[in-house]
Amino acid sequence: MKIIPIPCLEDNYSYLIVDEVSREGAVVDPVEPQKVVDVAEENWVDLKSVLTTHHHWDHAGGNEEMKKLVPKIKIHGGIYDNVAACTHPVRDGDKLLIGVDTFVTCLLTPCHTRGHISYYATGKQGEEPAVFTGDTMFVAGCGKFMEGTAVQMHESLCNILGALPKSTRVYCGHEYTVKNLQFASEIEPENSRIIEKLKWAKHQRSAGRPTVPSTIKEEWETNPFLRVDNPEIQKKVGTESPVEALQELRQRKDNWKA
């Protein structure tokens, strides 16, 4: 299983998932369809499907054009999310196959949108798994609670995505890492892992390189929205429970200026 990040728009990512045996592929959130088709052709990939994380235009807005460019393509999206041009609605736990060796499990991770889906991909034995988290989990952050609650985000972020194997590579929908880590460093100024990763992320971006993927292990070490069980974080934001801490952190981040 090979994964090719495709920078799109100002700070979005699409991702090409390639089954290396069959050369069949799927694309996550192809918001710039022609760019995706060009990358697929350059890498000798036969595009078979679209995996849409949620209905927002900067993730699903390319689906109609994708269908025109690749007429037989299957377009997957959450059954509760009204995804543009969706031909194959998916539910929590549905299994998809890319080629012969790449398996994808659909995970319902609501809050940013009502029917947001994250896609958990596994390849051949020995390959590290990957998860495509859209706008639910970012590197060191989480999405805004646009159609849900802190209770839902805690379940999606901590109990579903956070429960994946620690080695799982995290491919999120946006390049927000530097600002997210700057915010995280204000919440946990003594966390050396945050300081180290912030320095690394700044270097990556100054060199024009992406900060994805992260891993679930790294997120447990550096993502304050995932670390809300930590009594020190709860104390920092003046709350007494993980869900309350998550709500307060999101409100602070919504009003925060780097």
TrEMBL record:
One of its GO terms (biological process) is methylglyoxal catabolic process to D-lactate via S-lactoyl-glutathione. It catalyses: an S-(2-hydroxyacyl)glutathione + H2O = a 2-hydroxy carboxylate + glutathione + H(+). Residues 11-174 form the Metallo-beta-lactamase domain. It holds the Pfam family HAGH_C. This is hydroxyacylglutathione hydrolase. The keyword DNA-binding does not apply. Its cofactor is Fe(2+); Zn(2+); Fe(3+). Gene3D superfamilies: Ribonuclease Z/Hydroxyacylglutathione hydrolase-like. Pathway: Secondary metabolite metabolism; methylglyoxal degradation; (R)-lactate from methylglyoxal: step 2/2. Keywords: Hydrolase, Metal-binding, Zinc. Its EC number is 3.1.2.6. Residues 247-258 have a biased composition (Basic and acidic residues). GO terms for molecular function: hydroxyacylglutathione hydrolase activity; metal ion binding. Residues 236-258 are annotated as: Disordered. Coiled coil: none annotated. Belongs to the metallo-beta-lactamase superfamily. Glyoxalase II family.
